[in-house]
C-alpha cells in the first residue's frame, strides 16, 4: 500500500488541491465542524463551529471551493460555546446567526456587517432560548424567519436583528422542495447550501 499524494503549503501543511485538477478530502483538515457556506458572486465564504475559541467564527474565503484561506474572525466577544451557525447575505448586509451554550442554557445571537471582512457588530441576543441550529429563510412575501431545532420557527424583524413574534411549533415545511430532489428529511433545521 502506498501513501496518498499530498500537496503542501508554504509552511508544510497539507493542502487539498493537488495542482492537477483533483483534490483530497477533507478540504480543510482539522477540527472544522458544522460548516456554513455562503456564495457571494464569484466568492465563497465559510465558517465553522468555534466552540470556546476566541476570537471565534473565523471566516474563510475561496473562489473554487477547494483552496480556502482564513480572512477574519467575525466573533470577537466571548458569549459562550458557539456551533452550527448560519451565514447569510440579505439586501447587501451579512448576518451570522449563532447558537450559543451558556450557563443558563442555549440561545441564539446574531452579528452583522456591511462588509464580510468586517468590522462585525457586537452579538445581539435574539432571546430565542432553548434553541439551536438556526436556518435563515426569506419567504415569497419578503418576510424573514429563523427555523430552529424541533421543527420550529420564529419571524424576524425586517432588519434581521430581533424577533417579531413568538416561537412557532410544527413548522416543518418552510419551502417547497423541487420535485426531482431526493430528500431524506423535511426538517429545515441546520446549515444549508443552495
Structural commentary:
Strands 7, 8, 9, 10 and 11 form a five-stranded antiparallel β-sheet that branches. The chain has two domains: 30 residues, no CATH class; 152 residues, Glycosyl hydrolase domain, family 43 (Tachylectin-2, Chain A), CATH 2.115.10. The mean pLDDT is 87. The protein is mainly β. It is globular, with a radius of gyration of 18 Å. Helix content is 0%, strand content 36%. GO terms for molecular function: hydrolase activity, hydrolyzing O-glycosyl compounds. Belongs to the glycosyl hydrolase 43 family. This is Glycosyl hydrolase family 43. Keywords: Glycosidase, Hydrolase. InterPro entries: Glyco_hydro_43, Glyco_hydro_beta-prop_sf, Glycosyl_Hydrlase_43.
Number of strands: 14
Helix-strand pattern, N to C?
EEEEEEEEEEEEEE
Rg measurement, Å: 18 Å
Q: State the CATH topology of the largest domain.
A: Tachylectin-2, Chain A
The helix/strand class is mainly beta
Task: Let me know the CATH homologous superfamily of the largest domain.
Answer: Glycosyl hydrolase domain, family 43
How many helical elements?
0
Instruction: Please give the largest β-sheet.
Output: 5 strands, antiparallel
Keywords: Glycosidase, Hydrolase
Family: Belongs to the glycosyl hydrolase 43 family.
Protein name: Glycosyl hydrolase family 43
Pfam family, one: Glyco_hydro_43
Amino acid at each position: 500500500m502506498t501513501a496518498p499524494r499530498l500537496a503542501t503549503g508554504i509552511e508544510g501543511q497539507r493542502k487539498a488541491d493537488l495542482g492537477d485538477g483533483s483534490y483530497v478530502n477533507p478540504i480543510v483538515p482539522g477540527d472544522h465542524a458544522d460548516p456554513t457556506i455562503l456564495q457571494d458572486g464569484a466568492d465563497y465564504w465559510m465558517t465553522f463551529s468555534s466552540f470556546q475559541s476566541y476570537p471565534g467564527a473565523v471566516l474563510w474565503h475561496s473562489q473554487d471551493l477547494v483552496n480556502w484561506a482564513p480572512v477574519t474572525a467575525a466573533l470577537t466577544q466571548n458569549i459562550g460555546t458557539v456551533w452550527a451557525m448560519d451565514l447569510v447575505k440579505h439586501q447587501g448586509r451579512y448576518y451570522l446567526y449563532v447558537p450559543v451554550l451558556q450557563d443558563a442554557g442555549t440561545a441564539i445571537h446574531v452579528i452583522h456587517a456591511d462588509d464580510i471582512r468586517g468590522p462585525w457588530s457586537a452579538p445581539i441576543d435574539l432571546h430565542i432560548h432553548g434553541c439551536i441550529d438556526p436556518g435563515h429563510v426569506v419567504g415569497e412575501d419578503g418576510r424573514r424567519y429563523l427555523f430552529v431545532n424541533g421543527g420550529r420557527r420564529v419571524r424576524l424583524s425586517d432588519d434581521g436583528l430581533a424577533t417579531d413574534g413568538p416561537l412557532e411549533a410544527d413548522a416543518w415545511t418552510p419551502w417547497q422542495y423541487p420535485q426531482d430532489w431526493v430528500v431524506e428529511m423535511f426538517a429545515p433545521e441546520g446549515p444549508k447550501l443552495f
